[in-house]
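Work Package 4 report. The design task specified in the project plan requires that, given a folded chain encoded as structure tokens, an amino acid be chosen for each position. We show below one input record used in the internal validation round.
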């Protein structure tokens, strides 16, 4: 098969062998409690429950009326014990709702407050999009963009491609690969529902290091082809990072380039992650909101690498050591992969809708060296998948010239880390760009714009 790709990128070791092929297992926090962030994608939410309230799994516990909002649901049945700030990945601390199972009512674990089952092919388009909204579904590739918003593109837009992002280009992570192996029927059902909404053929995009899945996926596609409104096909991408980045994926498969500041629908594309398609299927077929998260636990400091499903809000520390056992010498804990994941000070943080993995790394897997001055080698420019010039952006930021940094592409940077990976001086470029973006946005607000 032809292998599709984009210009730039890097080739880190994929390190997927540790968790590859391990069956997905459902795990529950040993404390029988969850700490659920009030907002996990979209506009900030407000809690709808109070301390002491009894809640049921699937019940909406936080929401907003903002257009880009995405409701949050109870992932277990129990009592609201606290509503307080807690350490979370990506934003330091955030307001969270702590729910604990009722010890004297063990049968409560099976109670649910799911929505009514809804036929996605006979309901109206508006009803289908609202179901995805009410299910609290967000992109599960990391960005957590509200999925229903993707389907609310202008009526004038013509969607020609539904792309299912199964690239999973981050090293170590294998959960999407495992879902494709174990839950392909549900994935294809979610794809068919999404196709019905966008009226377009679908492409399942796999990196070549997962090409062993092609035959089994194609067999399943062939078995349902008679019931498909539009074709579904598998395409192979070169194994390269960041092959799974949304804009790079569109360029690799269609040759189109998403304009600066624009959304994928402007190029006729809608993209959904593998996990998102499962959530879409379950929202209609089971009435189930997004209350569980599949993810990979791995890293050389992890004795028990695994692919698991846990209730959203499960504290990583509540899986240790009964479920996840660690080696001595854990140097770094990451929420996500090693390229774009967030380093955490401890395992006391909750799994969120966008948590694709948790890594426990030893010193030899991490960079702990000394940053040296930039030598203007240009390697960062060669590998940048967005065709930017990181060296010019970093210089502008160092001189606090944010307008120049923006002119050189700061706001188009996807923070993939390719530039930092190849930098011989180990300049923390991604951190600089994140800080630069924050300063620019703060200054933008300060001008009242």
């Amino acid at each position: 098969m032809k292998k599709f790709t984009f210009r730039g990128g890097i080739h880190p070791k994929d390190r997927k062998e540790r968790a590859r092929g391990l069956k997905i297992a459902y795990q529950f926090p040993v404390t029988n409690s969850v700490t659920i962030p009030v907002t996990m994608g979209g506009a900030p939410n407000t809690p709808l429950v109070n301390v002491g309230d009894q809640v049921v799994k699937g019940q909406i516990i936080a929401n907003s009326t903002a257009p880009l909002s995405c409701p949050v649901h109870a992932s277990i049945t129990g009592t609201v014990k606290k509503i307080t700030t807690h350490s979370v990945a990506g934003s330091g601390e955030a307001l969270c709702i702590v729910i604990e199972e009722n010890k004297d009512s063990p049968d409560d674990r099976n109670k649910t407050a799911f929505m009514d089952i809804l036929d996605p092919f006979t309901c109206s388009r508006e009803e289908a999009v609202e179901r995805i909204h009410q299910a609290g579904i967000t992109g599960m590739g990391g960005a957590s963009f509200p999925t229903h918003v993707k389907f609310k593109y202008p009526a004038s837009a013509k969607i020609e491609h539904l792309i299912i992002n199964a690239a999973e280009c981050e090293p170590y992570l294998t959960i999407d690969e495992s879902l494709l192996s174990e839950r392909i029927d549900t994935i294809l059902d979610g794809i068919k529902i999404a196709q019905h909404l966008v009226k377009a053929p679908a492409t399942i995009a796999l990196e070549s290091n997962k090409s062993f899945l092609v035959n089994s996926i194609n067999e399943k596609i062939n078995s349902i082809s008679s019931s498909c409104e539009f074709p579904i096909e598998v395409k192979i991408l070169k194994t390269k990072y960041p092959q799974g980045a949304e804009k790079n994926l569109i360029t690799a498969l269609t040759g189109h380039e998403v304009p600066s500041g624009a959304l994928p629908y402007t190029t006729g594309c809608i993209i959904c992650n593998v996990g998102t398609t499962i959530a879409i299927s379950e929202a209609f077929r089971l009435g189930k909101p997004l209350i569980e998260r599949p993810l990979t636990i791995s890293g050389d400091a992890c004795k028990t690498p695994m692919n698991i499903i846990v209730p959203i809000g499960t504290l990583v520390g509540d899986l240790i050591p009964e479920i996840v056992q660690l080696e001595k010498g854990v140097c770094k804990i990451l929420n996500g992969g090693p390229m774009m994941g967030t380093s955490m000070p401890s395992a006391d943080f909750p799994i969120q809708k966008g948590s694709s993995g948790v890594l426990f790394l030893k010193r030899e897997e991490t960079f702990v060296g000394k940053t040296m001055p930039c030598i203007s080698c240009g390697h960062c420019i060669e590998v940048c998948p967005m065709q930017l010039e990181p060296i010019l952006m970093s210089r502008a930021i160092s001189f606090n010239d944010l307008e120049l940094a923006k002119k050189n592409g700061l706001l188009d940077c996807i923070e993939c880390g390719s530039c930092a990976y190849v930098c011989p001086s180990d300049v923390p470029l991604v951190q600089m760009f994140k800080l630069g973006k924050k300063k620019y946005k703060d200054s933008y607000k300060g001008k009242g714009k």
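The mean pLDDT is 94. Validation will be extended to a larger panel in the next phase.
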